[in-house]
Amino acid sequence: MSEALIETLLKAPYVAKFGVRFERKGDELTGVLPYEEHLVGNPLVPAMHGGAVGAFMEIVASAALLASQTLVRLPKPIDIAVDYLRPARAADVYARAIIGRSGARVANVRVEAWQGRREAPVATLHGHFLIKPEPVDN
Amino acid sequence: MPESLQELLNRLAPLIVDGSPHAQALGLALDGLGPARATMRAPYREDLIGDPETGVMHGGVVTALLDHACGVAAFSGLGAKETPATLDLRIDYMRPAEPGRDIIAEAECIRAHGLIAFVRATAHDGDESDPVATASAAFMVTRPSREAAERVRKAIESGALS
User: Which chain A residue shows the shortest CA-CA distance from B23?
Assistant: First the structure.
């Protein structure tokens, strides 16, 4: 658990601007993106901006990596692939990450985002992040 | 004489940012709009910093900028009639953007046929040969996006958006 860095992540101006928060049960995190009008991409659908949902899932991936181990700096995205499954409506978005593998330098993470029903995700993300774990003393 | 695609794009250009609350919230700007092409800019802003230690803007700004620029290029590539929805978006983050510099995304729709459009984009902070990120995306005209485009068309015709 990298408690201080999770705080740094949440207090980063961009993350704070969009009001992202986390609900924690032990080391399991659910990210919450509270609905705001400024998240809307197209007001006539109205659907949330794909970029906003993608960015939110990136934040949840970083937070999950920080919650699962002690890192000395924030994870940096190397690449991400986002699939948009259905329009994100005018409602809060939730997301949870699964860490596929977390090595000495790189972590592989999958994130699923949903609104009303967990079984009906609005988007999924698959990405690689550069990480720096705390050195282990021998 | 019927309106050319470029004339139609010029007429719709003000809606590219003003019609999207999230694009406005990030302060995105449209630098160029042509057939199957779009150039958009994310001005450097302190309230969009992702890592307070380095002052680098959050990766999410690059994600939203690329998604928006790719969507606009796809819209143009599809003849500026239908508003497509993002099917998928893949981004490679090459390096952090320089703090203090605007990020510019150049998107090109390399193929549009029927309901589908394929787009490639590059984001840089001044030098196009030294990209911050590259993206590859696919878009599709869906039923909700088609209904939304119809509402925009009616709103324009009634003068509500001019």
Answer: A41
CB contact under 8 A, A41 and B89: no
Query: Which two tokens mark B106?
Result: 């150049």
Tokens of A107: 């972590």
pLDDT digits over A34-70, tens only? 999 899 987 666 789 999 999 999 999 999 999 999 9
Query: What is the arithmetic mean of pLDDT over B122-129?
Result: 95
Report domain extents, chain A: 3-130
| Closest Cα in chain B, distance from residue A55 (Å) | 4
Please indicate, yes or no, if residue B70 is contained in any of the structural domains.
yes
Tell me the ipTM for this assembly.
0.91
B68 chain-A contacts, CB cut-off 8 A: 41, 49, 51
